[in-house]
Each structure stands twice: as C-alpha cells, then as structure tokens.
Amino acid sequence: MTDPSDAARTAVPHGPDLPAGRLVMVDIPGPTLDGDTAAHLRRHGIRSVCLFGKNVQSEGQLRALCADLRAVMGEDALIALDHEGGAILRPDFWPFAPSAMALGAADDPDLTRRSSEALARQLRAVGINWNFAPVLDVNVNPANPVIADRAFGGRCRS
Q1: Among 2, 11, 97, 121, which residue has the least CB neighbours within 10 Å?
Q2: If the chain, 158 residues long, is cut into consecutive pieces of 10 residues, what is the mean pLDDT of each piece?
Q3: Angle of the 59-73 helix axis to the 35-44 helix axis, nearest 10
Q4: What's the pTM value of the predicted model, to 2 decimals?
C-alpha cells in the first residue's frame, strides 16, 4: 500500500493551496518584459500569458520575449497568440497564410493540415505553445463580423 503522505507531496496544489495566478491568463503591456511586469507574474504565480499585436515587433524580439517569460513563469508556461491565417496574423513578418474560409473553399484536408502545421512551426520557433485558432467555427450568420473568414464554411457537415 502507498503511504498517503507520498500522494500529498506529489499532488497538484488545489483549493486554498493553489496560487490564484495559476487560474488566469494575462496580457502584458508591451514588446519586452519589464521588471514590474516580471515581478507581478512572479508574485501572483501567473503561468499563462496571451500576446497581442502590441507585443510583436520582429521574430528575434518575439523569441526573446518568450524566453524572458519562460524564465519568469517556468518552462511549462503557456504563451498564447492568435495566429490563424487570413486577417488574424499577429506577426506580419512571416509569410501570409490563407484564412480558414479559403481553406474550406479549397476542400483539401491535406492542404489545411499542411497550412496549420506551418503556422504551428512558426509559433514553436519563437517559443509560443498555444495558438488561439478556431477549428470548429461555422459562419451561420453572414452578418456576424466576428466569425467571417475565420470559419471553414457556412454549414455543418457530418
């Protein structure tokens, strides 16, 4: 039988023992990690950051920012970005990728897979490990400006 104290030592913290920062994803103010922001991330145990256009200037800058974030939040930190192709490409220094709607119109699953893998390689190369890219959006309301070309199509297929 396993000693119950072993389980307590290896269990993931939860309840009052879980730092609140582990439950949130935050935004940071600019393209570099300043001392105040780094201290805030450490103080609150924050392990997830979402990057936006204001955080992205060049490939080298983005790689350095991700490395700095990992140095503060840990190697298993989640660093996210919207990088889905079409109109939503935060880094404008990489080749343009087709939108989900263009890929859906092509009706070529292999092309969609290869395009998505290329986007993932770009992100991974700079240290981003979470892409906020829609995968099941359906543009059922053409008047909805949010979905538009982010959907692979306008009707569901089973």
Answers
A1: 2
A2: 44 60 92 97 95 94 98 96 76 87 93 93 96 82 81 80
A3: 40
A4: 0.81
Q: Tell me, what amino acid is at 35? A: G
HEC states along the chain? CCCHHHHHHHCCCCHHHCCHHHHCCECCCCCCCCHHHHHHHHHHCCCEEEECHHHCCCHHHHHHHHHHHHHHHCCCCEEEECEEECCEECCCCCCCCCCHHHHHHHCCHHHHHHHHHHHHHHHHHHCCCEECCCCCCCCCCCCCCCCHHHCCCCCCCC
| Start-to-end CA span in the chain (Å) | 48
Cα Rg of the chain, angstroms:
19
> What does residue 84 show for φ and ψ, rounded to 5 degrees?
-115, -5
Residue 112 tokens read as 């969609």
What single-letter amino acid sits at 44? H
- Encode pLDDT of 1-25 as tens digits: 444 444 444 444 556 666 777 889 9
Q: And the tokens for 20? A: 């609140």
Q: SS3 sequence, 42-54?
A: HHHCCCEEEECHH
